[in-house]
Amino acid sequence: MIKSLLTGGAGYFGELLTRKLLERGYFVRILDIHWPAQKYPGTEVVQADIRDADAVLSACEGMDVVFHNAAELAMRTSKALLWEVNRDGTRKLLESCVRRGVKKVIYTSSSAVYGVPLSNPVTEQTVPRPVEEYGKAKLAGETLCWEYARRGLDVSIVRPCTIVGHGRLGLFQILFEWIYQGKNIPVLNGGKNIFQFVHADDLAEACIQASTVPGTDAFNCGTDRFGTMRQVLEHTCLHAGTGSKVKSLPMRPLVAAMKLSSALGISPLGAYHASMFGRPFYFDISKARSKLEWAPRYSNEEMFVESYEWYLTNRNRVLSAADSASRHRSAVQQGALKLLHWFL
């Protein structure tokens, strides 16, 4: 039996990855500051902070592979905490893996490390240029991975596009609620920007495949069937049949307003969302295909429809529940985003 440690296992993606690993017969030890919403047979939970070096060292004892998903997001988070968790916590984990003789580490990074790319598709050779603190902190975590690889630790870095999937909420909950209510959906600059997403199930498969391939490397992951932002949103609105339409807003003033409202703490959007919503972004996934023998199952349109249908089924529970421990699985306060409908 392969013994795995999963940091951030109480979060949205962590729980999904836990189930995938259990299905394959892995033993799963979860390390998270929060207790999982559901504890599955075949799992062990260590409720601790990734910044606690002693707890992390203990959690790594006897583990064959470590999936590192614990991260602090940019929303409602201090700059200091962002770096303490995403950089310093990663350093503590990697050091513990070396000391405990862990055979393989999978570091789940972010497309935010690339910032606003100068050209698309983005490949693993594209120079990272993060534009905000979250992307910079995640890139610092990657830099540590390469540093520890030079010390002999086998690490794979997986960089996902924006993740969508059943149960993924956060900002998507706002989008789905607007569609449910029949409100118009904004895009910037006509929504003609090509944008790639990845389904959480596909990402989990990529992480597991990466854990079986020896050698330190980095892999970009996203769907292979995608189009413009307008196309995926119009398809979702048409499927919902609530009367929602996709409406374009001017990019430059809206981006400026989004960044300002984010800085003032009156919007759930972060600086990265404001920078990227109206711009093209898509990966070349050929490396993950060839080296990991991985292929995505879901298209942009399929994952959005599936996620919207999940939201319909679970809407009452989502809206009545208190904030979840995971920001990706809870409803989000719309804040200044409500003002967008004045212009739609």
Tally of helical segments:
11
Number of β-strand runs: 11
CATH superfamily of the largest domain: NAD(P)-binding Rossmann-like Domain
Outline the low-pLDDT stretches. none
User: In which range does the helix fraction lie?
Assistant: 40-55%
Task: Explain the overall architecture.
The structure is a single chain. The chain is α/β, with parallel strands linked by helices and 344 residues long. The chain folds into two domains: 3-163 and 197-221, Rossmann fold, CATH 3.40.50; 166-196 and 225-281 and 301-342, no CATH class. 41% of the residues lie in helices and 15% in strands. The chain contains eleven helices and eleven strands. It has helices at residues 12-23, 53-59, 79-100, 133-150, 171-180, 200-211, 229-240, 251-263, 271-276, 286-292, 300-320; strands at residues 3-7, 27-32, 43-47, 65-68, 104-108, 155-160, 162-164, 185-188, 197-199, 217-221, 246-249. The chain has a seven-stranded parallel β-sheet with strand order 3-2-1-4-5-6-10, with helices on both faces. Strands 7-9 form a two-stranded parallel ribbon. α1 (12-23) packs across α6 and α7 (229-240) packs across α11 (300-320). The radius of gyration is 19 Å and the shape is globular.
